[in-house]
Each structure stands twice: as structure tokens, then as C-alpha cells.
Design goal:
By secondary structure, the chain is an alpha/beta fold. The chain has a domain of 238 residues: Rossmann fold, CATH 3.40.50. 43% of the residues lie in helices and 17% in strands. The strands form three sheets. It has a seven-stranded parallel β-sheet with strand order 3-2-1-4-5-6-10, sandwiched between helices. It has a three-stranded mixed β-sheet with strand order 7-9-11. Strands 8-12 form a two-stranded parallel ribbon. It is globular and about 65 Å long. The N and C termini lie far apart (52 Å). Bound molecules: nicotinamide-adenine-dinucleotide and thymidine-5'-diphosphate (TYD). GO terms for molecular function: dTDP-glucose 4,6-dehydratase activity. Belongs to the NAD(P)-dependent epimerase/dehydratase family. dTDP-glucose dehydratase subfamily. InterPro entries: dTDP_Gluc_deHydtase, NAD(P)-bd_dom, NAD(P)-bd_dom_sf.
Length: 350
């Protein structure tokens, strides 16, 4: 029996991690803590919300008192920390929100664990889920490894880099059992349509322009979200204390090539003439400080913990498109209300 606090479990990746742990480990008690920001959605978890080993707590990780009280009341064995502000464009508009949640929120969780796990650090694990964006940008060549120096460029990646440093500092200073993983761009179901792939699917479906930043030449390494959740499971259970793993898809795509592939898939799924959706592609002003290329070397994870991605990108992308087309209500719900004003503000001047 283990009681695990998963933070950010109502978000995109968090909901896949919660689902995996609730279903795979009926003898674990999973407590999902989430503030339910615009990105958090309990509709992501309707299939498991009534399971006896699952509980939801609405809380804000920037509220240190509330976090301490939760740790006092619940005897957690481990934390898997995913709660974060996660969108680069929003971090350019409002960096402070990223400092508050990603840095202060992480330190609040570390402080609570440090206090309430005293005397049993060897039996408790703090697993911090991070991003490859902390390593900065690559040129045409090379890949990020676990020893690549941190060089973040956006307020988002700077805040995640800072949180990673705090997690390592608590391991080195207090001897807490901390583990970190840094993953490349995820894609799949339940992804909030402010990020490239779900935004493009939604716009193509609605015959709206598909905004491509700059020349569309930036490269990202895409990983199926369920493969990320499986990697988190393996690392959580088998990593050595203080260890770090990179997680990636070995799947690099230029944005414009990815969007063209997506347009082809959407033409087929929607019964449109070939080339119809690609007419929606619209080049817009580039993102400030836009990192050119990310690519992850996940050899360590493959060799030590026997993890490899399971899906080819074309197959995963087609499955993702199917999910969005079959879950129109989910998409309509998350794109009503605040989404409209965000979209207006983000794309009107481009
Ligand atoms: P997301 O934005 O979809 O979800 C974040 C969740 O955190 C939401 O449910 C939100 O309500 C919650 N949250 C935000 N602020 C909070 C607060 N103050 N207190 C409590 N809950 C709060 O993000 P995601 O894409 O699922 O990313 C999850 C984690 O994985 C993040 O830490 C992110 O940095 C990391 N990551 C994401 C990617 C990616 O491609 N999306 C890749 C690598 C790493
Ligand atoms: P995004 O999904 O925001 O992830 P990240 O910035 O964390 O990598 O963006 C992926 C890539 O797509 C990135 O190079 C920026 C680009 N992009 C566009 O070209 N148009 C868009 O509307 C968005 C949201 C992103």
C-alpha cells in the first residue's frame, strides 16, 4: 500500500499519469491535487473518478499553509509533481505567474515534504516532472543529454530550470530522495488547444487559419503522451535516488512539415479534397526568443530502465486527430469562455 500525491493531475500529462497509476496499481491510493486553472479539467478523468483508490483535492501549490496542512493530514509516501504553468506564449505575457507556481509552488511542496517526511527520507520519494526546454536551444546538430548545461531562454523554461535546481538542492542539502525527468514535447488526447497540435486540429476542423510562427523551421521532438506516462511509471519505481532521466521520442519534426502532415490526415478524416486543409496555413510573426531546435537523447533511459517509445508519429497523430473529432463536446467546452479572449489577444497582432 502506497499513498501518492500527484500534482497537476487534471492537466494534459497529469491526467494520463493519474489514469495509469489508478488503473495499474489498485493497491496505491492516488491523491490528485490541482488548482483547476484554465488548463485543468476534471472532465479529463471521468473514466476513473469513482475508483476507490482515487481522490481529488482542489488546492493551489502557491498556498504554503494549505500544502502543509495536507501533508500533516495525509501520510504521503511519495509525490509526483506535474502542476505547472506550462505554455511558453503565456509566460512571455505574464512571467510572474510562472515564478509563483513553478518556482514558489515547487519549493512549497519540497518544504512540506522536508518537514513531514523527517526521519524517513529513505522511504519517501519526491519525483519532479520537468522539460527539455531547460537545456535551451540546439543548432542543426546534437542532442540534449542528462549532462547538458542548463541554458533556458523563455520565462517558462527559466522557471522550470529554477524548480529543477531547487529539487536537486533539497536532495544534496537535506538528503531527500529526489528524482527528475526532462521530457520533450508531448502530444495526444486531452491536450489544451493553446499548444501547436491541438490548436491546429481545432482550427483546421473549423476552417480557421493555422498560425505558423516565423518560417515554420523550428524543430521539436514529439512524444506520445502515454509513452511519457509509462516512462514516469518506470522512473518513479526504479530510478536511483538523486538521478535524472531524459525522455524523448527520437522523433524530430520541423513545425511546417508537421502541420502539412496534420493537414493531410485531416483532409482524409474530414473527407476533404487533398490539399484543402493546407490552404489554411498562415505564417505569422515569430515568437520572441523562439528556441530553434529541441532533440532528446534518451539512451540512458533505454539502457538502464528498458524504456523505448511505443508509437510511430504518423500513427499517434492519426489517433490524436480521431480523439479530437470524437470528443467534440470536450473541445467545445475548453474553447468556450476564456479561451476566446486568450486567442484574440495572442493572435490578433500577429
Ligand atoms: P497543463 O498546463 O496541461 O497542466 C498543468 C496542470 O497544473 C493543470 O491541471 C493546472 O490546473 C495545474 N496547476 C497549474 N497551476 C497550479 C497551482 N498553482 N496549483 C495547483 N495546480 C496547478 O501542463 P502539461 O502539459 O500537462 O504539463 C505537466 C507537467 O509536465 C509540467 O510540469 C510541464 O512543465 C511538464 N512537461 C510538459 C511537456 C509538454 O509537452 N506538455 C513536456 C515536458 C514536460
Ligand atoms: P508549443 O506547442 O507551444 O510547444 P513549445 O513551445 O513548448 O515547444 O509550440 C510548438 C512549436 O510550434 C514551437 O516551435 C512554436 C510553434 N507554434 C506555432 O508555430 N504556432 C502556434 O500557434 C503555436 C501555439 C506554436
Amino acid at each position: 500500500m502506497k499513498k501518492i500525491l500527484i500534482t497537476g493531475g487534471a492537466g494534459f500529462i497529469g491526467s494520463h499519469v493519474v489514469r495509469r497509476f489508478v488503473n495499474s496499481y489498485p493497491n496505491y491510493e492516488i491523491v490528485n491535487l490541482d488548482k483547476l486553472t484554465y488548463a485543468g479539467n476534471l472532465a479529463n478523468l471521468t473514466d476513473i473518478e469513482h475508483k476507490p483508490n482515487y481522490k481529488f483535492v482542489k488546492e493551489d501549490i502557491t498556498d504554503a499553509d494549505a500544502i502543509n496542512q495536507l501533508f500533516r493530514n495525509e501520510n504521503f509516501d511519495a509525490v509526483i509533481h506535474l502542476a505547472a504553468e506550462s505554455h511558453v506564449d503565456r509566460s512571455i505575457t505574464d512571467p510572474t505567474a510562472f515564478v509563483m507556481t513553478n518556482v514558489i509552488g515547487t519549493v512549497n511542496l519540497l518544504n512540506a515534504a522536508r518537514e513531514y517526511w523527517k526521519g524517513s527520507y529513505d522511504q519517501k520519494r519526491f519525483y519532479h516532472v520537468s522539460t527539455d526546454e531547460v537545456y535551451g536551444a540546439l543548432g542543426e546538430e546534437g542532442m540534449f543529454t542528462e549532462t547538458t548545461a542548463y541554458d533556458p531562454h523563455s520565462p517558462y523554461s527559466a522557471s522550470k530550470a529554477s524548480s529543477d535546481h531547487f529539487v536537486r538542492a533539497y536532495h544534496d542539502t537535506y538528503g531527500m530522495d529526489c528524482v527528475i525527468s526532462n521530457c520533450s514535447n508531448n502530444y495526444g488526447s486531452h491536450h489544451f488547444p493553446e499548444k501547436l497540435i491541438p490548436l491546429a486540429i481545432n482550427n483546421i476542423k473549423n476552417n480557421k487559419p493555422v498560425p505558423v510562427y516565423g518560417k515554420g523551421e523550428n524543430v521539436r521532438d514529439w512524444l506520445w503522451v502515454e509513452d511519457h506516462a509509462r516512462a514516469i511509471d518506470v522512473i518513479f519505481h526504479h530510478a536511483k535516488t538523486g538521478d535524472t532521466y531524459n525522455i524523448g521520442g527520437h522523433n524530430e519534426w520541423k513545425n511546417i512539415d508537421l502541420i502539412n502532415l496534420l493537414c493531410n490526415i485531416m483532409d482524409q478524416k474530414l473527407g476533404r479534397e487533398a490539399g484543402e486543409s493546407a490552404k489554411l496555413i498562415t505564417y505569422v510573426t515569430d515568437r520572441a526568443g523562439h528556441d530553434l531546435r529541441y532533440a532528446i537523447d534518451s539512451t540512458k533511459l533505454q539502457k538502464e530502465l528498458d524504456w523505448v517509445p511505443s508509437l510511430q508519429f504518423e500513427e499517434g497523430l492519426a489517433k490524436t486527430v480521431d480523439w479530437y473529432l470524437q470528443n467534440e463536446e470536450w473541445l467545445n467546452n475548453v474553447t468556450s469562455g476564456n479561451y476566446q479572449s486568450y486567442y484574440e489577444q495572442q493572435y490578433s497582432n500577429k
